[in-house]
Design goal:
The complex is a heterodimer of chains A (96) and B (614). By secondary structure, chain A is an alpha+beta fold. In chain A, strand 4 and strand 5 form a beta hairpin. The model of chain A has no long low-confidence stretch (mean pLDDT 82). Chain A contains 2 helices and 6 strands. Chain A has helices at residues 36-45, 80-83, and strands at residues 15-16, 26-31, 52-58, 66-70, 74-78, 86-90. Chain B folds into 2 domains: 12-215, 3-Layer(aba) Sandwich (Rossmann fold); 235-611, no CATH class. Chain B contains 25 helices and 11 strands. Chain B has a 6-stranded mixed sheet, with helices on both faces. In chain B, strands 6-8 form a two-stranded antiparallel ribbon. In chain B, strands 9-10 form a two-stranded antiparallel sheet. The chains are: A alpha+beta (96), B alpha/beta (614). Chains A and B meet through helix 1, strand 3, strand 4 and strand 5 of A and helix 3, helix 7, helix 8, helix 12 and strand 11 of B. Strand 5 of chain A pairs antiparallel with strand 11 of chain B.
Chain lengths: 96, 614
């Protein structure tokens, strides 16, 4: 039932969420499980494959923490270290 | 019609579950009429609350309001309480007969998997879609019937804070209390891959039943300003500063009113009562002692009016976001901000609220620094001394006294951060915990629950005045009046006790009266003010202020203020630390490091001020 928009329109490579530029919309491709506990907690708070994410705010010093807009409805604060567990694929420029 | 009422007269027990900020506690308050038995302290739900509702058909439903948690994997103490409660493992509580899951209607897509997870408990379940008004405001379209069908449990739209919005919930519960049947047996908590699977199903359901607009909503637009990397911290600082200014500026007329009332009462009783010990006990002991603290009620109420409004509107989570960088530098996470802010009311609920922090070392560090936040028991002491020594001048647009108060609060915060940094590198060493915090949508709090919260805080303050300060005042009056009765406190019992510790405190500039005041301040810091009022025989706080201003030197007054920033002078805080950490080690560490800070802080202030020629 879920629409996974990963068809071969443009082969953009995936990147870590913490490296995503500010206000660039992306889709979650996977959540790495090398820290299993943290992965589970990221899922519980709402992150899942296929979700649209966007970094909407970055802290002033060292770019931490990040406020992530999740699926256009929720704002979640995490630090770059947590965001690094999430692999995303940037989408085409959304206008503004 | 079978009756399932137990010996307590309860027909049905319902556990309330839901993510943080879903409005679960508002619904609970509304259903139970706000007459809940909240465990110890109001504020953030740290334990659980119980309350009852009688249905239209006369059935009694008991609700269990559990801490707001996301999942059921038991990461934090809070989550474990919730899991234990639902599984009937909570001490002294029966397993609930049913679950009511409250979901924020504006966040269905990201929270739906928690509802599916809750089905794993195998209990009859109903889902309440709360904040439907906000969903409508944001243009969210929800197919409730479709959602109900997909989930296989009743789904009721609701606006918990409005009576009309709750009607559907009340009606369903009324029918439900008659025939609730248990679903299937208990299933184990979900594993890793199951959670991923549940998420997939949840996303599929929400794609079919919920339509969210992709345009920026009010919360997003506000956050663009309030979370702005430069504007955001400036607004936060301005807000905090304004809050302390307002506490001073707005309370003055009310304080004058209360002072006049107390002075009138004292005068009237002096006229009526015959001269002698009874008159002295009532006028100097009780009215003087309790009155000296009671006049600070307006300031306490104004302070909480701000804190509660910031909390209910959703701004507090933003404040936590803005200070996270700073917190990360000292090894804490932004989540510690909320327990620490609660500690501005009282360290006891703050230390309890630290349970929401899942990392144990992080929680311990937060507990240890919580007493450095300026709790409400310190305000009377600060108000008295700032009023006595700092002139009521305007510095540009600001009131000098308000500025000094802000500085006192700031010193506490700065030392809390320094202490956290040192603790994180010594006794609570460990890796930096993650930050995962949802920023809730902004909302206008309901006036009723706001006023209820304010009243609860005022009640705590008044209760302390009655239960601690009143008896303490009587004891202090006795100790400072006898055995000599010549009016010289030096020859009284209190004077004798004070003289024992005076030699220890004299090097940091403290006089005998201050030494006397510090002993009963262990019960509650504000008793120091009552004690000074009794010891100096001051009839009201105005007189007391001017007596202190003329009897103490400025360095002495400042040293006393510095002492109160740090001193661990509150038995309740040490007791709750013992309880929450389940060991004597942590309250002892807390006491030792704070008393050292207090002694050095007061000493440096005293000699520093003298060296500056103040």
């Amino acid at each position: 039932m879920i629409r996974i928009k990963c068809a071969g329109n443009q082969r953009k490579k995936t990147m870590r969420l913490d490296k995503l530029p500010l206000n660039q919309v992306a889709r979650i491709k996977s959540i790495r499980s090398d820290d299993a506990d943290l992965e589970m907690r990221l899922r519980e708070i709402g992150f899942a494959e296929g979700d649209r994410v966007e970094i909407v705010h970055r802290g002033l010093f060292g770019g931490s923490p990040l406020a992530i807009r999740l699926d256009g409805i929720a704002s979640i604060a995490i630090r770059p270290r947590e965001a690094a567990l999430i692999n995303v694929q940037p989408e085409g420029q959304d206008g503004h | 019609m079978d009756t399932r009422a137990d010996k307590n007269g309860v027909d049905l027990r319902i556990a309330l579950l839901g993510a943080p900020n879903c409005g679960k506690t508002s619904l609970f308050n509304a259903l139970t009429g706000g007459r809940a038995k909240v465990a110890n302290y109001p504020g953030v739900t740290v334990e659980y609350a119980k309350g009852r509702m009688v249905t239209e058909k006369g059935r009694v439903i008991e609700f269990l309001d559990l801490p707001g948690v996301y999942g059921d994997c038991g990461h934090s103490a809070d989550e474990r309480v919730t899991i234990d409660a639902v599984n009937g493992r909570l001490k002294g509580e029966k397993r609930p007969d049913a679950i009511m899951v409250v979901m924020d209607a504006t966040h269905i897509r990201t929270h739906l998997h928690n509802v599916l997870q809750a089905k794993n408990y195998g209990l009859p379940m109903v889902v309440v879609l709360n904040m439907m008004d906000m969903a409508a405001r944001d243009g969210v379209e929800i197919d409730v019937a479709g959602l109900e069908q997909a989930l296989g449990v009743p789904v009721i739209p609701c606006v918990a804070v409005r009576s009309a919005g709750r009607q559907a919930v009340m009606t369903l519960l009324s029918d439900w209390a008659d025939d609730v049947e248990s679903l299937d047996t208990l299933k184990p908590e979900p594993t890793h891959s199951e959670l991923k699977q549940i998420q997939k199903i949840a996303r599929a359901i929400s794609s079919q039943t919920v339509k969210e607009p992709r345009t920026g909503n009010l919360t997003e637009r506000l956050d663009r300003i309030l979370l702005h990397p430069i504007l955001g911290p400036m607004i936060l600082a301005a807000l905090m500063f304004f809050m302390f200014q307002a506490v001073y500026a707005w309370s003055a007329p009310l304080i004058g009113f209360i002072e006049q009332g107390i002075a009138w009462l004292g005068g009237a009783l002096t006229d009526i009562l015959p001269d002698g010990p009874i008159e002295s006990l009532i006028v100097n002991g009780i009215i003087g002692g309790v009155g000296a603290v009671l006049v600070f009620l307006p300031q306490i109420i104004i302070l909480f009016a701000f804190i509660l409004a910031l909390e209910a509107s959703g701004y507090l989570a933003r404040a936590a976001f803005l200070v996270d960088t700073l917190m990360a530098k000292v090894g804490l996470n932004g989540r510690a901000f909320i327990p620490l802010l609660s500690s501005f009311a009282c360290a006891v609920p703050g230390i309890m609220a630290a349970r929401t922090i899942d990392n144990e070392r992080d929680r311990l560090t937060t507990i240890l620094i919580a007493p450095l936040m300026t709790c409400s028991a310190r305000w009377p002491v600060y108000f008295l001394l700032v009023g006595a020594f700092i002139p009521d001048l305007s510095v540009g647009p600001f009131n000098l006294r308000g500025v000094v108060m802000s500085v006192l609060v700031l010193i506490g915060i700065i030392f809390a951060l320094i202490s956290a940094f040192i603790l994180r590198h010594t006794v609570t060493k460990g890796k930096v915990p993650p930050l995962l915090m949802e920023l809730p949508g902004y909302k206008l709090p309901s006036l009723k629950s706001y006023l209820l919260g304010l009243w609860q805080r005022a009640k705590i303050f008044l209760n302390r005045a009655g239960r601690i300060i009143l008896p303490a005042s009587v004891i202090i009056w006795f100790l400072s009046t006898y055995p000599n009765q010549d009016g010289d406190v030096r020859h009284s019992f209190a004077g004798m006790i004070g003289r024992v510790i005076e030699p220890v405190l004299a090097p940091i500039g403290f006089n005998l009266e201050m030494s006397i005041a510090l002993i009963p301040a262990m019960a509650a810091r504000e008793v120091a003010v009552s004690t000074l009022a009794i010891v100096y025989g001051a009839s009201d706080s105005h007189v007391l202020g001017s007596m202190i201003g003329s009897n103490w030197s400025l360095p002495t007054g400042l040293a006393f203020l510095a002492w109160f920033i740090f001193a661990p002078s509150c038995i309740a805080t040490l007791a709750i630390t013992r309880k929450e950490t389940n060991s004597w080690k942590w309250p002892i560490i807390m006491f030792i490091y704070l008393i050292i800070l207090a002694y050095i802080g007061a000493g440096l202030t005293y000699y520093g001020a003298k060296a500056l020629g103040l």
